[in-house]
Amino acid sequence: MNPILSLRDVRRTYGEPPVAACAGVSLEIERGELVAVVGPSGSGKSTLAALLARFRDADSGSISIGGVDVREIDESVLRATVGTVLQDLQLLGISVADNIRLGRPQTPMERVVEAARAAAIHDEIMALPRGYDSVIGQDARLSGGQAQRVCIARSILADAPILILDEATSATDPESETRIQEALDRLATGRSVVVIAHRLHTIAGADQIVVLDRGRVVERGTHAELMAADGLYRSLWDSANASSEETREGAEAR
Ligand code: ADP
After folding, report:
1. DSSP label at residue 202
2. 217 pairs with which residues across the strands?
3. Which residue among 23, 53, 94, 165 has the highest number of C-beta atoms inside a 10 angstrom radius?
């Protein structure tokens, strides 16, 4: 099978003295596959997401989609092919409806509502002073979790076959987190997805987990394979579980 997305020895360096945020990453993503990228803070996950979405260019190596180098793909075609839900959410100071149908002003209202329902944000939009006509920053003040679901609704409507998701690190309340996860699961269905995961428990079911450390791929496999390998993934998982247990115990003690 031909991979839909392929990275060959991708490198990207920042600053002086140079720090290699991406130090030769090679990856192949098959059509319909969900690939999770994990690693300690500073290991290059967000840099990889930015390179995949072509917000930044690699210093060397290549990224190709369906066998075509991304540098040869027209910007508008690339934007229609690779959707993103990244950490720095891009909501504009226009109505909620126009934020969801961004770049597609002709989209009928039913489709906007359908996408908002799928992204589990419709009821909260309806509760705003002017519903879908409320303007971001004026009468629509959204929490981080709500803003994220508006961005997910936009991606559902945009319907790009490849998606790059950079999960937010910011803590949201557990109820919002569950709804975000539901919305992301719906968005991911039937697409090829790369998830930049800052929390491990959400990606245990991924088809392929790629573990980065200092800009390099140090392990790859399924959750079960990586747990058995007893390497970096296992230690990240064990320390994440230990800290959530501490939080739970702390909450119970209070
Ligand atoms: P992660 O998402 O895994 O935390 P990043 O991709 O954000 O990792 O960062 C990888 C490395 O690259 C870090 O050492 C970080 O300090 C550096 N880095 C990332 N972005 C920039 C930038 N715009 N300018 C300078 N250094 C950067």
Report:
1. G
2. 212
3. 165
Query: Cα dihedral angle (146, 170, 24, 201), rounded to 10 degrees?
Result: -90
Determine if ligand 1 sits within 6 Å of the CB of residue 142. Answer: no
For residue 182 the two structure tokens come to 């539901």
Q: Which residues of 75-102 are buried (b: 16+ CB within 10 A; e: fewer)?
A: eeebbebbbbbbbeeebeeebbbbbbbb
- Quote the CA–CA distance of 140 and 64 in Å, as a whole number: 39
3-class secondary-structure state, position 71: helix
Model pTM score: 0.87
How far apart CA 70 and CA 10 sit, in angstroms, is 13
pLDDT in tens, 36-84: 999 999 999 989 999 998 888 899 999 999 999 999 999 999 989 999 8
